[in-house]
Specification:
Keywords: Transferase. There is one protein chain. This protein has 2 domains: 76 residues, Glutaredoxin (3-Layer(aba) Sandwich), CATH 3.40.30.10; 105 residues, Glutathione S-transferase Yfyf (Class Pi), Chain A, domain 2 (Up-down Bundle). 53% of the residues lie in helices and 7% in strands. The chain contains 8 helices and 4 strands; from the N terminus they run βαβββααααααα. α1 links the parallel β1 and β2. α1 packs parallel to α2, α3 packs antiparallel against α4 and α3 runs parallel beside α6. The relative contact order is 0.15.
């Protein structure tokens, strides 16, 4: 299999953590780079949206979107990171929440990096952070029992999302208002699969 990736992409990190946790071997990593304005070397032939991660399976099929790739790899490896229903629906909802945090956080990055400074819209940026803040509040208030339960992909996704907030938005200091979530993240981030995929740069 071939995985198109960037080591700073939190969506790629989700896939890499699953690969490590599931003990999947033989995945070739192909580095790419780009952004919404310039796709650069993004795998547009494999994913017309020009996003990563994108996975090409052993039989040549292209699979994209981190949630789809994670479900595929989990299924083929029998890793069990997507548990049976009814917990499955909680796991998927938690993963969707984490990916929504990432969507908003990355849009904030693009607003600062890609849009000219005189055209940046502060209210729009703060609106993205408001989505993140509400999600963090919800994780702290409703989801700690699930996060502290058996390992699943919802936990991996949340940990990767929180790690990205540290990586790109550390000044927002999300931990201050979320002590339980912060304590959980501190412990989860010590897993070998998490330390091996920690972004740098």
């Amino acid at each position: 299999m071939k995985l198109y990736h960037s080591p700073t992409s939190p969506y790629v990190r989700k896939v890499m953590v699953l690969i490590a946790e599931a003990g999947i071997a033989g995945v070739e990593l192909i580095p790419v780079a780009g952004n919404p304005v310039d796709p650069g070397s993004m795998p547009v032939d494999q994913n017309p949206l020009g996003k990563i991660p994108a996975l090409v399976t052993d039989d040549g099929q292209a699979i994209y979107d981190s949630r789809v790739i994670c479900r595929y790899l989990d299924s083929t490896a029998g890793a069990g990171l997507y548990p049976p229903a009814p917990r499955l629906w909680q796991t998927l909802t938690l993963e969707a929440t984490a990916d929504g945090i990432l969507d908003a956080a990355i849009l904030m990055v693009y607003e600062a990096r890609v849009r000219p400074e005189d055209r940046q819209f502060e209210a729009w940026t703060e609106g993205q952070w408001a989505k993140i803040a509400r999600s963090l509040d919800t994780l702290e208030r409703r989801w700690m029992d699930h996060l502290e339960g058996p390992l699943d992909m919802g936990q991996v996704a949340v940990a990767c999302a929180l790690g990205y907030l540290d990586f790109r938005h550390s000044a927002r200091a999300w931990r201050a208002a979320h002590p339980d979530l912060a304590a959980w993240e501190a412990e989860f981030s010590e897993r070998p699969a998490m330390t091996a995929t920690q972004p740098v740069g």
